[in-house]
Design goal:
This is Long-subunit acyl-CoA synthetase (AMP-forming). One of its GO terms (molecular function) is long-chain fatty acid-CoA ligase activity. The chain is of the alpha/beta class and 558 residues long. Among the domains are: 6-20 and 34-192, Rossmann fold; 348-424, Roll (Luciferase, domain 3); 428-557, ANL, C-terminal domain (GMP Synthetase, Chain A, domain 3, 2-Layer Sandwich). A seven-stranded mixed β-sheet has the order 6-5-3-4-7-8-18, sandwiched between helices. Strands 11-12-13-14-15 form a five-stranded mixed β-sheet.
Length: 558
C-alpha cells in the first residue's frame, strides 16, 4: 500500500473538516481573517489552475518572498498542486541575495507577499520575471492574487505528486558565504511531519486543538517543518500569524498557543523584558517561596502570553542552560532540540526521561548518530536532504561513505544518548598560544547574564581570546548616563572574572568589549534566523583589536 503524502493529508482535511478554521491572519487595526480548510484549499486550487495555465516546466521552481502569513501556506499548496517546487526567500534579505537565489534556483515566477522593505529589495528581482502579489503585499505592479483566483476555476480532484518529486529547495541563511540550496522531497518531508506530530501530541496530550503562533521565518527549516508541514499533516492544528514586532504580545495573547517554538535570542529577550519590570533578585526571591512561587511564575507566563503553553521548544542555536532552568522555574516546560536544514529539522529532542540543561536531547525515532574521531556529530535522519541544488560536489563532501551527514558541529554523548553541542568544527580558532578555542560554550556563559543581549568570542592569532558584548535592549537607552555606564562596567568586570574561573587557561578572555551599535539582521551582523555572522563582525573590528589589547582596562567600550 502506498503511504500518504502531505497533499493527501490536505485533501482529506478539506473533505473531512471543511468548516474547521485552519489559519488566522491579522489584517490590521486589531482585525483578523479566518481561513477554514475548505477556503484554504479552494484558494490553493484556483491559484494552482492559474500556474498550470502558464505551462511551466515540470518541477518548475516558484519563489515566495514574504513574511509569515496565511497566503504563504496557501501559495505553497498551489505550487505543489501545480507540479512545482517551492523556493522561499527570507523576507529580510538584501536585493543582492534575492537576486542570487532567484538566479541560482532558476525561478520561473515570484510570489511577493507581506514585506517591510520591498522598495529596497525590488532591484534584486530580475527584469521580466513574472510576479504575483499576495493579499498583504506592498504596492506592486504585479497581478494580484485576489483578482486571479476570482476569475480562475479551481483545479479539481486530488492532484498528485510522487514521493521523490522535489517539494522545496530551502536556501540556508548563510552565516558564511553564499547560501546553499537544500533539496527536500515529498516523501521525506511527509514522514518527518508525521513524526513531529506524534512527538507533539505525546507531550501535550488530548486537546481540542493544538494552537501555534507562526512568527519565526517560514523560509527557515525550523518553522517550515515544525509549524507548517506539521500543521498540514495534522489537520487539528490552528495556526495564528503574528502581525508585526509591535503587536507581538497581542498576537500571542490572541493565539494562546499550546505549542510554542522559538530561538535562543528571543527566549533571552522575553527574559530581559521580564527583568525590565522586576529585578532578577526580587523575582528569584518570590519564586523560591513555596505556594507563592507558583502563582508568581504563572503570572509572569501570562504576561508573556505563554500561560497556555504545554510544550515549549528552543532550537536553531545553542541556548544557555541557566535560561532553560529559569523558564522551568516559572513553570514552562521548555525543552531544547537540535537539527538543521539538511535533515528537515528532524534530529534530536529532549524528552521527559532524557533531558538536561545544556544538552539538546536524544535522537528522535529513526535517527542514527555517531561522533567521528575528530569529534564531529554525524547524523542519518528520515528527513535527510536529497542534496544541494546544482552542487553535486558539495553534496558528496557532506556525507560519509556510509551515508551519514557531516553536521560541522562538535559534540559529546552521554551513555543514555543525550547529546551536547560543544561548538562548530569551523568556528574553532587558535590564539597565539597555539591552542584551539571553541567560542560557543563561552558565549553561552556570557549570554546568561541579564545585562547581555548577545556576545561573540574571537581572537584568531591574538595573544588571548576576547569577547564582544551587546548590552541588553532595556539598558541601551540609559548608557548616556555615567552612573549606568559605571554600573555596566562593574557588572562586566565581575562577569569576566566569573566566566574565566570556569575556563582553562588557554580559553580565558583577555577582555570584554562593549559594542555600542546592536547587531541586527538589517545591518548584516545577524542572519535572518538571528545567528551571529562571525566573519562580518570580525571584519568590522579588525583594525581596532590591537589598541584594545594595548589598553590597560579589561572592560572596553567599542
Amino acid at each position: 500500500m502506498t503511504q500518504k503524502l502531505i497533499l493527501d493529508y490536505v485533501y482529506d482535511h478539506e473533505a473531512q473538516r471543511p468548516n474547521q478554521v485552519f489559519l488566522t491572519q491579522p489584517i490590521g487595526g486589531g482585525q483578523v481573517r479566518d481561513y477554514t480548510w475548505a477556503q484554504t484549499v479552494d484558494e490553493a486550487r484556483r491559484m494552482a489552475a492559474h500556474l498550470q495555465s502558464l505551462e511551466l516546466e515540470p518541477g518548475a521552481r516558484i519563489a515566495i518572498l514574504s513574511k509569515n502569513c496565511a497566503h504563504f501556506f496557501i501559495a505553497e499548496l498551489a505550487i505543489w498542486m501545480a507540479g512545482g517546487t517551492t523556493v522561499a526567500i527570507f523576507p529580510t534579505e538584501t536585493a543582492d541575495t534575492i537576486g542570487y537565489v532567484l538566479e541560482h534556483s532558476g525561478a520561473s515566477l515570484l510570489f511577493v507577499g507581506k514585506l517591510d522593505t520591498w522598495e529596497a529589495q525590488r532591484p534584486g528581482v530580475p527584469t521580466g520575471l513574472p510576479c504575483i502579489a499576495l493579499p498583504l503585499a506592498p504596492k506592486t505592479d504585479c497581478p494580484r492574487w485576489d483578482d486571479i483566483i476570482a476569475r480562475t476555476p479551481p483545479l479539481p480532484g486530488r492532484p498528485q505528486r510522487a514521493g521523490d518529486d522535489l517539494a522545496m529547495i530551502i536556501y540556508t541563511s548563510g552565516s558564511t558565504g553564499r547560501p546553499k540550496g537544500v533539496m527536500h522531497n515529498f516523501e521525506r518531508i511527509t514522514r518527518v511531519a508525521e513524526e513531529i506530530n506524534r512527538d507533539i501530541h505525546a507531550r501535550i496530550g488530548p486537546v481540542p486543538e493544538n494552537r501555534v503562533l507562526s512568527y519565526l521565518p517560514l523560509a527557515h527549516v525550523f518553522e517550515r517543518a515544525w509549524v507548517e508541514a506539521a500543521a498540514l499533516v495534522d489537520g487539528n492544528t490552528h495556526v495564528y500569524f503574528a502581525e508585526s514586532l509591535d503587536t507581538f504580545l497581542q498576537d500571542l495573547q490572541r493565539a494562546r498557543p499550546t505549542t510554542f517554538i522559538s530561538v535562543p535570542r528571543l527566549w533571552l529577550k522575553f527574559q530581559q523584558g521580564v527583568f525590565a519590570k522586576m529585578p532578577p533578585k526580587k523575582l528569584e526571591r518570590l519564586l523560591s517561596i513555596p505556594i507563592l512561587g507558583k502563582i508568581v511564575g504563572r503570572k509572569v507566563l501570562k504576561g508573556l502570553g505563554l500561560d497556555h503553553v504545554l510544550l515549549a521548544g528552543s532550537g536553531s542555536a545553542p541556548i544557555p542552560a541557566d535560561l532553560i532552568q529559569w523558564y522551568r522555574r516559572l513553570g514552562l516546560n521548555l525543552v531544547e532540540g537540535y537539527a538543521m536544514t539538511e535533515d528537515f529539522a528532524y534530529s534530536h529532542n529532549s524528552t521527559a526521561e532524557a533531558n538536561a540543561p545544556g544538552y539538546v536531547g536524544v535522537p528522535m525515532p529513526g535517527v542514527e548518530v555517531r561522533i567521528s574521531d575528530e569529534g564531529e556529530i554525524l547524523i542519518k535522519s528520515p528527513g535527510q536532504m536529497v542534496g544541494y541544488y546544482r552542487a553535486p560536489e558539495l553534496t558528496a563532501e557532506a556525507f560519509t561513505e556510509d551515508g551519514f551527514f557531516r553536521t560541522g558541529d562538535r559534540g559529546e554523548r552521554l551513555p543514555n544518548g543525550l547529546l551536547k553541542i560543544t561548538g562548530r568544527v569551523k568556528e574553532l580558532f587558535k590564539t597565539a598560544k597555539g591552542k584551539y578555542v571553541a567560542p560557543a560554550p563561552i558565549e553561552n556563559l556570557l549570554n546568561a547574564h541579564p545585562m547581555v543581549e548577545l556576545s561573540m568570542v574571537s581572537g584568531v592569532g591574538q595573544p588571548a581570546a576576547f569577547a564582544l558584548v551587546v548590552p541588553a535592549e532595556s539598558l541601551r537607552p540609559k548608557l548616556g548616563d555615567p552612573a549606568v555606564r559605571r554600573e555596566v562596567e562593574q557588572a562586566m568586570e565581575q562577569l569576566l572574572q566569573d566566566v574565566n574561573a570556569k575556563l582553562a587557561d588557554y580559553e580565558q578572555l583577555r577582555m570584554i568589549v562593549i559594542v555600542r551599535e546592536p547587531w541586527s539582521i538589517e545591518n548584516g551582523t545577524l542572519t535572518p534566523t538571528m545567528k551571529i555572522r562571525r566573519n562580518r563582525i570580525e571584519e568590522a573590528v579588525k583594525d581596532r583589536i590591537e589598541p584594545w589589547f594595548d589598553a590597560p582596562k579589561r572592560v572596553i567600550w567599542a
